Amino acid sequence: MSEPFAADGSGNVAASRMRGKVCLVTGGGSGIGRAAALRMAEEGAAAVVIAGRREAEIASAATECRILGAQSLAIRTDVTQEDDVERLVGIAVDRYGGLDVAFNNAGFQERRAPLEAQGNAVYDEVFDANVRSVFLCLRHQLPVMFAHGGGRIVINASVSGIRNPNQGLALYSASKAAVISLMRSTAMEAAPRGVRINAIAPGRVVTDMMLRSGVGDMSSVAASLPLRRMGKPEEVAEAVVWLLSDATSYVVGHVLAADGGFLAS
């Protein structure tokens, strides 16, 4: 029997795809990360550990997860720093006894500008936030999951890593292409040991990061999509939780586009 799903894509129908799971979300204070953390709690997660740099935001998200019935911790974390990532995973394991599910969501998008106008510091910030962070998270999550018999990981990539839709975001696009390659290679290594790794590729979703990057006329952007509208973080979160669930037990190394039809158009 298929699981219930709200027809409007909001995911507001009770389900239990994360029942009993210890979950970790990086960049969980806002946008897609926050929406995913709340969806995990709604879906019966035993615990949701929320990591991020903005303490007030992650604390608020953790409070909402507890209201929804999950245990939850907010841990201030800079995922570009190995000591922080090691501490984050360690706290999750020490507090809840393991780690079943991880959504490596944290990322950064530069302000739009031609490549020649982007300096070395911007390059470092983009690649540290989008690639190094995933590398560090995987390095510390995988041994824990291997030791406990398996797990599931989803990495937040982007349609920009597949087809660059925006001028002025060359670094972001290149970093997300690297993330997809890193995901696929690691997925092949981890699958025989019981850990499934996949990626989500959002496109045209209204988040704070997108707005900070200097998006143009949003109405014209929306009009260019087959659905004729922008996406919501909650819609991507639904796809993330699906990838992390038993419903995708035979899906490994896949990039799922949640993009309103952008890549198909």
Give an account of the 3D structure.
Helix 1 packs parallel to helix 2 and helix 3 (82-96) packs parallel to helix 4 (120-147). The protein has a seven-stranded parallel beta sheet, with helices on both faces. Mean pLDDT is 89; it is low at 1-14. The chain has one domain (22-258): NAD(P)-binding Rossmann-like Domain (Rossmann fold, 3-Layer(aba) Sandwich), CATH 3.40.50.720. By secondary structure, the protein is an alpha/beta fold. Helices cover 42% and strands 15% of the residues.
Order of strands, main sheet, comes to: 3-2-1-4-5-6-7
Helix content: 40-55%
Report mean pLDDT, rounded to a whole number.
89
Give the termini distance in whole angstroms. 32 Å
Number of strands: 7
Structural domain tally: 1
Helices and strands: which structural class?
A: alpha/beta
CATH superfamily: NAD(P)-binding Rossmann-like Domain
CATH architecture: 3-Layer(aba) Sandwich
Low-confidence stretches are: 1-14
Count of helical stretches: 8
Name of the CATH first level = Alpha Beta
Based on CA atoms alone, the radius of gyration comes out at 17 Å
Sheet having the most strands: 7 strands, parallel
**SSE string, helix = H, strand = E?**
EHEHEHEHEHEHHHE
Kindly estimate the percentage of residues that lie in beta strands according to DSSP. Answer: 5-15%
